[in-house]
Design brief:
The protein has about 250 residues and is α+β, with helices and mostly antiparallel strands. It contains 8 helices and 13 strands. The protein has 2 domains: about 140 residues, Jelly Rolls, CATH 2.60.120; about 80 residues, Winged helix-like DNA-binding domain superfamily/Winged helix DNA-binding domain (Arc Repressor Mutant, subunit A). The chain has a 4-stranded antiparallel beta sheet with strand order 2-9-4-7. The protein has a 4-stranded antiparallel beta sheet with strand order 3-8-5-6. The protein has a 3-stranded antiparallel beta sheet with strand order 10-12-11. Helix 2 crosses helix 3, helix 4 crosses helix 7 and helix 5 packs across helix 6. The longest helix is centred in the middle third of the chain and has 27 residues.
Length: about 250
């Protein structure tokens, strides 16, 4: 959450005071199943997970990937049945927070409520980009774009800049996320490697020419909203996070 927002220390205390239950899931184990009523909010501490929908004939569409630091399935706050499933990719540890406790925390802290709103804005932007990625990009553009996105997200979660992307997902996972076949994914990855865009060693993919790959995939980071939302000041005098007043923000939007 700290990669999304800057909060004063006393606000983080409300989050740390939550009585969450740590649960470890083995690889390829469902955390959430479609149709079930979840009564908890999930915080992913370590590992990888993916959200997907399964069609009646067995075809799967991966919607997005959950990485360390992600909070997911806030629909439990409305006592709604899940319309998707979430499964682990590798051994994964999550903290389950009862929905009622989570709601009480949001009522106590307007800053934390705004922080989770900002995190949901980030996820919504990623989902919009996924629609564009599948609907309008070529196979090489889709794969390159997703690799760059995962790299940026992992760097944000780990707090360091690395070219290597630890990729525990399979070519089948990539295919199901990008609307391709596994064979097409394999051939495209091989072509990208020969072109000097990436290097592959076991489960690690190194982006060897990020600038060229970004140009090829039409990738920019704007949709990831990498600028942290600054809530360290409570804006009691009507000032916006960048220091401008409310009237200034309104005038710039008009």
């Amino acid at each position: 959450m700290s990669q999304y927002v800057s909060l004063p220390d006393d606000e983080w205390k409300h989050l740390f005071d939550l009585s969450g239950k740590p649960v470890t899931y083995e690889a390829h184990q469902d955390i959430i199943r479609a149709g079930e009523n979840a009564e908890t909010v999930f915080y992913l501490q370590s590992g990888w997970a993916l959200r997907y929908r399964m069609l009646d004939d067995g075809r799967r569409q991966i919607i997005n990937f959950m990485l360390p630091g992600d909070v997911f399935d806030l629909q439990s706050l409305g006592n709604l049945a899940a319309d998707h499933s979430v499964t682990t990719v590798v051994k994964t540890e999550v903290v389950q927070v009862p929905s009622r406790s989570f709601l009480r925390m949001l009522r106590r802290s307007a800053d934390l409520a705004a922080a989770f709103w900002w995190a949901s804005v980030q996820e919504e932007s990623i989902l919009r980009e996924q629609i564009v990625r599948i609907g309008r990009r070529s196979a090489r553009e889709r794969i390159g774009h997703l690799l760059l996105e995962l790299q940026r997200r992992l760097n944000g979660a780990n707090g360091e800049e690395m070219d290597d992307v630890e990729l525990p997902i399979t070519r089948v996972d990539l295919a199901d996320a990008l609307g391709l076949t596994p064979v097409h994914v394999s051939r495209t990855l091989s072509a990208m490697r020969r072109a000097g865009l990436i290097d592959i060693v076991r489960s690690r993919i190194a982006i060897t020419d990020g600038d060229r790959l970004a140009r090829l995939a039409h990738f920019d980071t704007d949709y990831l909203h990498l600028r942290s939302l600054d809530l360290s000041q409570k804006m009691l005098n009507g000032s916006s996070p960048n220091g401008n007043g409310v009237d200034d923000a309104r005038s710039s939007a008009s």
